[in-house]
Amino acid sequence: MIKLSFKVALPLVLALFIISGISCTQTVEKTEDFTVRITDKPLTFCNPINLHVGSERARRAGEPVVILYQDDYYLFITGGRGYWFSDNLRDWTYVTAPNFPGGVLSVAINNETLYACSMNQKDVYKCVGDPKEGNWEQTGTFDSDRYGDANMFFDDDGRLYMYYGWSQIMPIKVVELDPNTFKEIGESKVCFFGDYKEHGFERRRAEDVIFPYFDHREYFPEEYPWIEGPWVTKHNGKYYLQYAAIGLEFLSYSHGVYVSDNPMGPFEYSQHNPLTFKTTGFSPGAGHGSTFHDKNGQLWTICMIPSNYGSGRGGSEMALFPTDVDADGVMHSNTAFGDYPQYYPGIKDNAVDNNFTGWMLLSLKKYVEVSSTLEGYKPANAVDEDFMTHWSAETGDPGEYMTVDLGKECDLYALQVNFDQQDAKIEMGGRGFGFGGGSSLDRFQSYTVQVSNDNQNWSMLIDKSNVTQDLRHDYIELPEPVKARYVKITNVFTHDEGKFAVKDFRIFGNPDVAKFTKVSNVKIVRNPEDRRDATLLWDPVPGADGYVVRYGIEPGKLYNNYMVYDANTITIHSLNKDPEYHFEVEAFDSGTDYYREVTEETMGRGAEIELTKGRGRGMMGFGQEAGSMVRKMTYEGINEYVFDDITPDFYTLRHTFGPVLWSGELTAAELTGSGNEPTVTAELSELGKGTEVMGQMNLKVVPGEGSGKIIVTFDYNK
Predict the structure, then answer these.
(1) In this predicted structure, what is the pLDDT of residue 213?
(2) What global pTM score does this model have?
(3) How high is the pLDDT of residue 60?
(4) Helix or strand or coil: residue 207?
(5) Which of 76, 53, 59 is CA-nearest to residue 436?
């Protein structure tokens, strides 16, 4: 019996977009070069990140911008008239700002004043007073209403630049603006165009489409990329012009970066690109966001990633990744294990290398037991690391459940429950390009989590029976590790009259037994006809859950990666054409084994025999006026067919669509009576494999009260 039990309280702040745990005070511990900003639990978050306001429905987390202003972080997203602030990037409060511009936003700081504008809009706004009060007023007008994906950037000298661009064929451009009138100074300059023939990660490959936004035509095998979302970060005197490619609907949605010594350019492409890139796991995609310095001066990149709920065609959420600039001026991020538990900013020095907790994903491809299954939404979907699939129960009633068998006792450190909307009568938030929010509910998806070591005696681990926030990705860091083999989530309430549906029930832990093994024998073949592609093959590591394939153009700068699950090969399509590449493969093992379905045990072996009643009736249906009964072979270990309700008549037993195995007249004396002794027996065929005879197929007739049974058995030699 597991003894530890606790309840997770919902926060009282107006909005909490990263976690839904207990808001706590901070203790600041200073070291020589790094200040620890958070020392109380929870210490971790897990992508994707929830975004909501109080009891409103979840919001679409589009084009996120984070800035550090007067010792607080501010988060802005597309749409709505408001934003969030936090002093630690963990606990967030929402600010209503009626005059704040909507749309795709840019926010910048100049002389302690916040300025904001919106894509393709001429009006410029400034914050009046404390931004926590939400007072904004129009302060100027641009010359142009063609600043697509606008990014205002005030340099240290007070000069203002506008970076803009959002197109498959047009460039990212920059123009200097008067910081007082916001009018253009001089001519705009081209920064760069998309170049998918040279930059593999900029390719719009039809195979990478998650959900099609284009419904008027097929996606071509390759297309020009959408180049969008410019964002400038100044670091150590250099200007890093970040951009998004190629479109939210692709797995390979990502960021790249160009670099210059001057805000007006010229800008040079970084051959170490992409900057953020993640095509595998539960949270793929990493584009159109912003990079910011935290209070320790470390860099982080917040990204827009794809999402999908209910019958919507797809929307967006957020993910956060540590970023850095190395000694040679190369900006890079780390997305490996990027949707596993990570430490909040302000906890780990050199977060780009140290931010992964080491808590492994234990639930992937494990055996799942459920209370019921809606046709087409199988239980395995809830442990497959695919955000486009889900398991659904047949109802949304209290008591519907799923249990994950980890295969052995494990140390549990955290859980993430990712819900879907199955047959909900109202589906809002996170759909299409809508902004969500708006309407509120008194109660959202509510549930409990229990743990066990024998699948019979259960202890309550998490009680969320009355959830008042739309937590589609409910991540809980446990106060203390818990030992358990079985983890069970049970429905308490499903909102909008939907069915209980889980995208993925993700269970993390086992840091002390996890193994990471560098693979030595890696074969790489670069496609000679298309150097953007390379295929890798390596010797499998016994017991490995998967592999991290790291690559880069210098041996010590393998800044990009793929995570490969349950395979020892991958073809990648994200290379830059010109440089040579270096690769490294590392196996990871959680200390548990995948559940491998043996279909002969779970589905039967597929052979069929049929019983026909009456003379000369061929293979017509039994149970009708003239008919036959067809049965699939039973599961391994049972090895028998049973035909019930046999009454006096002539019967023919045959292999379905095959030869006759037995036929004969059965009388009332043979079919009625008591006891288990057969009244008729027959040997039908030998059983075996290859040249080896392994047993005998036999028939017996067993009488019963009113009718009898014909039983066909498969008797194997012991």
Answers:
(1) 78
(2) 0.86
(3) 84
(4) helix
(5) 59
